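Notes, p. 3: input format for complexes.
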Amino acid sequence: MKKNGKILEVQNLKVYFDTEEGIVKALEDVSFSLKRSEILGVIGETGSGKSVTAYTITRLLPQPPGMILEGKVLFEGEDLLKKSENEMLDIRGEKISMIFQEPMTALNPVFTVEEQMTDVISYHEKISKKQAAEKAIRALELVKIPDPSLVMKKYPHELSGGMRQRVMIALALSCEPELLIADEPTTALDVTIQAQILALILEMREKLGLSVIMITHNFGIVSEICDSVAVMYAGNIVEFSSIYNVFENPLHPYTEGLLKAIPPLDKDVESLNVIPGVVPNLIHPPSGCRFHPRCSRKLDICEKKPPKLVELTDGHFVACHNPLGGGKR
Ligand SMILES: Nc1ncnc2c1ncn2[C@@H]1O[C@H](COP(=O)(O)OP(=O)(O)OP(=O)(O)O)[C@@H](O)[C@H]1O
Ligand SMILES: [Mg+2]
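Output follows (329 residues plus magnesium ion):
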């Protein structure tokens, strides 16, 4: 199963939504891959397709209105898009877990932490309620919840935001998945708790050999914990490589813009560099390269032809007709 060391290969995903206002062209030709025990950051502004990518991989995309029109999601070499719903029920939780963007929607308000966790654990493993409860406590200990037996008896609304997030991570990890997809797991949290959750994810990678897809719109988070990064813009992956390549040598003008927009610690917010323009509406996306109306390096071809994601240098992928100089700028 360890073919080329990749646990996940997403190939040419095309996902649209059929809405009353028109067809939302949410993902167009999205490809990236993830090695075992690697943490991949998926970054992009709001509406760029990060959550839709996560929902497509886990097959939790609402269909309709969602439509998966093309592509493959190879998990350990098998295409998840070809699995039956029953097969997916086994895969979700046991092999792939997801932490959702909204913790309150993922936890059921009418059940205690214990009820929810033992339910999930006993769905995947034929063990007694008592054994499932012990396993739940171990998962809560793993995410450093103080006094897990007490927290087991609580309802989600009785917990703080940071605590709920830990419970959600414990729930996601309770069946020892191989791949964790974390959709903005720290956005709603204050910086101290945010740092703790990131440290926890790193620790889980060390302890469990977990592979992680970390979705965020924060390059600071990516730089802290990720090994590689996929930059999304308006439904496309525009750049994909190791964290080193992307930070030291960005090839796509959008990536460069995002990097320049990272607030420097020693400057005030007014001196921030923000990419001019707005993210396009995906019912009528710009022709050619979807970034061209905001791009300072635009050529004639950019309005006409969407650029393909190509490997420009070793392991460094970019979708751009006029990429940056690769260090020679
Ligand atoms: N159920 C849906 N019906 C119609 N359009 C949808 C649906 N879900 C997502 N979309 C559209 O798909 C596009 C991508 O949305 P997505 O939620 O993946 O963005 P995101 O990158 O996760 O943004 P954010 O940072 O705000 O979470 C958006 O244009 C969004 O409006
Ligand atoms: Mg999202």
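The pocket of adenosine-5'-triphosphate (ligand 1) is lined by residues 17, 19, 24, 26, 44, 46-52, 62, 65, 101, 217, 282 (CB under 6 Å).
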